[in-house]
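Protocol step 6 of 9: fold each sequence in the batch and record its structure tokens directly after the sequence line. For illustration, a two-sequence batch is reproduced in full.

Sequence one:
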Amino acid sequence: MNNTLKMLIGAGFAVAVAFYANSIIGQATHGGFLVLAAVFGAYMAMNIGANDVANNVGPAYGSGAITMTGVIVIAAIFEAMGALVAGGDVVGTIKKGIIDPAAFGGDPMLFVYAMSAALLAAALWLNLATWLKAPVSTTHSIVGGVLGGGIAAGGFAIVSWGTMGKIAASWVISPVLGGVIAAIFLYIIKSQIIYKEDKLGAAKKIVPILIAVMAAAFITYLTLKGLKHVWHDLTTMLSFLPQTKKPTIGIALAFGIVGAIVTYFMIKPKIVAKIAGMDNARADINVLFGIPLVFAAIFLSFAHGANDVANAVGPLAAVNDALVNLSISKKAAIPLWVMVVGGLGISIGLALFGPRLIKTVGSEITELDPMRAFSIMMAAAITVIIASQLGLPVSSTHIAVGAVFGVGFLREWLDSKKMDEKQQKLQVEVEKQRALKAELDSLRTEEDYKRQVELIDAHKAQKKKVKSLKRSLRENYVKRGMVKKIVAAWVITVPAAALLSAIIFYVIKGFAV
């Protein structure tokens, strides 16, 4: 499918959303702004699908466990399901509480301009980041948009700078936590299985435990992040569940432990049977991690759809609420059509433009195989659980990409002995090159012509050999250029989205007046 057709399909979705929004707003005062916000929301949802979803399925694709078509189908279905089934019916109108609604002076239209500007600014920034092949945080993009629109509407005093400080801290906390946890799991796999003489015997013991731990992590993660919006409905239908406002960490861990036990006893005989026909080789061990990656992609996609759809529909729901009630609320109901825009938009954006970032996360930062991808996706779930309980602000994008970095850097560290051997070999070859050059320089007479020709050819060959060795030393397991580009994009996401939002706010306000 060429880019023109993709853009036409995306534009068609936005136009359909606009027509629907226009049909339900009718002749209401300022109804055109709901249509405008709906288009921006559709555009934002598609950009979330194009950029953010890659973090959930990129490692599974890069490892070769799932094809590109497979990861797109899995993510598209379960992102939409997460959004529609567990996306919630109420959302905070101000993302992360970064600005005070009271600062709009009770003027709902100023609020509408700011939220509309935030949506468009965040979507434009995500669009640019996707084009640059930089996975960035959609949460930080919408935070930047709300920040810029809020400042333009009410000045700098409107901002909760303490909250913004915590968000800035997540630029470091998220990737470091994700990287460390992914590296720990990969080291466990290598030290307890790959480095053992009897790899198959070790795999029989360790792999079922690792898969059970994965089940515990994902069930806990899904309970905390994917079911929190519908927990009240679940407890109403299932009276035996704890009657809490939302699932606590204790409830989530209990579900996770039960899931881990069931998974262990189900998977253990299957692993043993599968190993019986395998060779004692790393490639065969890798096969054991393939199926768990499919379930990891499903769980992460569902939880992401449930949790991050608010980045697209939150400001849209806030605009809808402000226009319907002509007031500014801290919480707004999410109409079903708004949630459909979010869920369907994410899936459409993923299907049309997602492969670009899926390839980046999966194969263009470091080389992945199933055991490395397994470690990354484990880290994605466990880091969110730990951070949410410690009250640390984290980004799922930064966690996942940080985990990819962590896996790559661990490989470099573990293979440092090989690098030392290469370095020693390079020094020997450089000395040979110098000796040839010294001998060549010492030959001056015509009688030495034949030897000079031999030495010139030998020196050229030696230079090529030295150059090849130097190149191999520069070939790191983690592509430094990608790391620098991605980190730079992370740092400028909030200010870039904020600046765009402020400009768009003044444009919208100018046209409105």
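Sequence two, same batch, same settings:
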Amino acid sequence: MKKISIVLIIIGAFALGYLMRGGGPQTQDRQQAVSETPQTELWTCSMHPQIQLPKPGQCPLCGMDLIPVSSGETGSDAGPRELNMSEKAMKLAALEVMPIERKEVTAKIRMVGKVDYDETRISSITAWVPGRIDDLFVDFTGVEVKKGDPMVSLYSPELLSAQEELLQAIVTEEELQQSNIPIMRETASKTVTAAKEKLRLWGLTGKQIEEIETRGKTTDHVTIYTPISGVVIHKNGLEGMYVETGTKIYTIADLSQVWVKLDAYESDLTWIRNGQKVEFETEAYPGEMFKGKVVFVDPFLDPKTRTAKVRVNVPNSEGKLRPETFVRAEVHAAIKRESDVIKGVTSNQPPLVIPATAPLFTGKRAIVYVQVPDNGGTYEGREVLLGPRAGDFYIVREGLSEGEQVVVNGNFKIDSAIQILAKPSMMSPEGGTSTPGHQHSAEQKDLTSKTQEIQIQLFDVSDVFRTQLDGVFSAYFMMHQALSQDDLKGAQDGAQNLLRSLDNVDMKLLEGPAHSVWMNEHKSITGSVQGIAESKSIESARLEFITLSATLYRAAKQFGTSGTQLVLRFYCSMAAEGKGAYWLQNKTSVENPYYGSAMFSCGEQVETISPASLEEHPQGSTHE
């Protein structure tokens, strides 16, 4: 019995140990499966990290695409500016990298300007002798004339006397032909020659002088002919008017070749050189490209616009280019050497460039994400110094080396993930625990509204003026929609429409203070719109749009609208580098013009501007 008890104790001990280890094979398999199961992947919003969802989608607060975040994917061993991503995360973020390389690129310089007369092809018809204008064969400007066409019939007593001198000199020469004194014959011949030369210098043609000589009689009037072909651009003479020597009667311009004067920004002058080919189009012939050649760059800058005039010679045999025609031009400047764009560099090798989609800009800072060598899933953020943009590329001055792999697609998603980890990023260069979000200060909003109420005065204007303003707001809404869709060309087209609509607003309908206020607002609107029309990047256009939105808001509050369309005010606290910015819409759903597709629905409606009456609704209300 004692032996049996010992055996039972040993068996019980084994059983107890077996149970303590977790049981049989099935239990162990379950534990192993649990340990190998990947941790749950969460999806969050870079602007609102408090959002944690189990599947991809869009942020319920701002509509931005969610990004994947799961422990073990970001890498605890990553550096302060680095992010580790799994293959799955990289695919979801649609990451794309390209090597940094040296290559010849072409800078595309856009300019605007107007067609002008070729000053070397302008001629004046003046009175070469005193007299009276009895006939003007061209009695209005704009008439096209050809070389040799009659222009003026002039009565001049002095010309009459000069003709008499010629006829008498001819008679004397004939009488002295039989003279035996050579000096007498020579003197008579020289007198005839001098009389003819006098008439020629007074404006008579050789044919006219021959007719006088053949006819043997003087004429009361002399006809003045045009010396060139062209168009009469000025008519200063009148029939019956007495003129003195040098009085200008007509001005004629030859339009077979014209000048195009373009405005080049100070920063673009380094690309522009004599002899470059220029392509441009006009409003009158959309889609048709004209070509010319740069022949002169003004050595002086306009102190107000900070631009210099660039003169282009353009053939105009078909006469399509009329003076004062507005043109949009492009110059393509090839950059073959690094020394062409970076001062102090003597290298003849091509410049170091990165695709234009690689950098993220915030103010003057530029951030790029570079793939860490030998670690395809790790990306490092760098602040770089860039040169000018040349087409689809940026010139690199500092911060990158040839051969490195730079992120050209998905860089914003990487930056968003780094922001969540409180590491240095585009929006937060120093890093930290604070996360960006749309948290508005009610006190700040109230203070802003009160300040604006003090500055804005409501004017009693006519319904006609408010109807004319509708065209301006319609063009503005076209620009807003284009910017919210990341469409720079559409915004620039809208800018041109707004300028035309602005010209249709008759300021004579305003009187007194209202007229003065509108003059100031008109100037501000024009400046902002022209800035958008001439913007070289959508970022600069969006900065101008902030000022334009503020000015049109004041206009809506001061002069009202006709009531045919909504005018709603929206606000985004993240715009303007975190300072916040407003804009206007004609629809209630948020369409952010400052971030576009990156944060399309980010923002909130803060005010409804009622048509005409300007009665305000509570902030955040919608138009029913």
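Proceed to step 7 once all outputs are recorded. Observation for sequence two: Confidence is low (pLDDT under 50) at residues 18-39, 70-76, 433-455, 612-624.
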